[in-house]
Design a protein that fits this description.
about 325 residues, alpha/beta, five-stranded parallel β-sheet, elongated, binds iron/sulfur cluster
Length: about 325
């Protein structure tokens, strides 16, 4: 943690600023304020940065870039919105092309108001951000130390916001593979995910009509979560139609991968459908690690379907192994 505090590296992005806040931010690096003497380094590579400093309001072009940069920063990370435009959209908030402040796209930890924000305020914001960074780092170490105490339990609608945040982080590695930030998992909204907790699974229209009156909890989507120290670090969901259980959105926080959490989630969700004789899931054709892991759990590919240019889904299935009777 000492390294973070004594030499925080930050990346600065101009979301659509008038340039006022950018000039003030860069003034922090001039000999007058000279934050480099305090160890602050302005890097151009998000993978080297601890702090993400954003100026300007968010528009459709900058929203994608903000998300892309944010997900490339390693954990733990802190986002600092500099200037009233980045905090709330400022004087541009009602413009047709402005969706609001930075927090309309990613979670913001520190707000530095002002138009333009003064260098002293920006430096204060960075110092405050270091406190948040230290707290997040402590939480992550505690979580990592308790990894053998992971609980695998059902999630409910109140977990939707945390599940969605995890989904956006976990699927970033898939976005990198396909060079596409518009994967369905990354585009899903909170409202849509909340609706998934209520929604009956897709069925043939006639089948749904015929059985709607008999629908009960067993017809709903099942969400599982892996929890450690009260934090959700993995999840998977599934639903059953007749004798097939359809599993999807298997995800583990990148910091906690390769510790058997995905494997355990898969086993647990299969146990949630004792009546299923067959399991089906899908993943991207180039997602070699997912394909490898699924093959190890007995899933075999049976069809491939084009989804978008450069992206095809591979569908995999597995028959339930009956216990050998003695
Ligand atoms: S807060 Fe003021 S100075 Fe900063 S980007 Fe917005 S309009 Fe420009």
């Amino acid at each position: 943690m000492l390294g973070f505090k004594q030499s925080p590296w930050l990346i600065h992005y101009d979301a659509s600023s008038c340039n006022g806040c950018d000039i003030e931010t860069l003034a922090c690096l001039t000999p007058l304020y000279d934050v480099e003497r305090l160890g602050v380094v302005n890097t151009g590579n998000p993978k080297h940065a601890d702090l993400f400093l954003v100026t300007g309001a968010v528009n459709p072009q900058s929203a994608d870039v903000i998300r892309n940069i944010y997900h490339q920063l390693p954990e733990p990370k802190v986002v600092i919105a500099v200037g009233v435009c980045a905090c709330s959209g400022g004087i541009f908030r009602d413009c047709y092309n402005i969706s609001g402040g930075v927090d309309s796209v990613i979670p913001v930890d520190v707000y530095v108001p002002g138009c333009a924000a003064r260098p002293e305020a920006i430096i204060d914001g960075v110092v405050k951000g270091l406190g948040v960074l230290e707290e997040k780092h402590r939480d992550m170490v505690a979580t990592a130390n308790s990894i053998d105490k992971v609980l695998y339990v059902r999630a409910d609608k109140s977990d939707a916001a945390e599940l969605l945040a995890l989904q956006k982080i976990a699927y970033q590695s898939e976005a990198e593979i396909y060079g596409d930030c518009s994967l369905p998992a990354l585009e899903q909204t909170l409202e849509d995910l909340e609706n998934d907790f209520e929604r009956q699974p897709d069925r043939e229209a006639s089948l749904l009509g015929a059985r709607a009156s008999q629908a009960d909890d067993s017809d709903r989507m099942v969400f599982l979560k892996a929890v450690v120290n009260g934090k959700i670090i993995g999840s998977v969901r599934g639903h059953a139609v007749d004798e097939t259980a359809y599993l999807s959105r298997m995800m583990v926080h990148p910091y906690f991968r390769r510790r058997g959490i995905g494997r355990r989630l898969l086993d647990e969700i299969e146990h949630c459908f004792p009546q299923a004789r067959r399991f089906e899931t899908f993943t991207g054709e180039q997602s070699k690690r997912n394909l490898f892991q699924l093959a190890k759990r007995g899933y075999q590919p049976f069809k491939t379907e084009a989804f978008a240019p450069g992206l095809s889904w591979v569908y995999l299935q597995k028959e339930r192994q009956e216990a050998v009777k003695s």
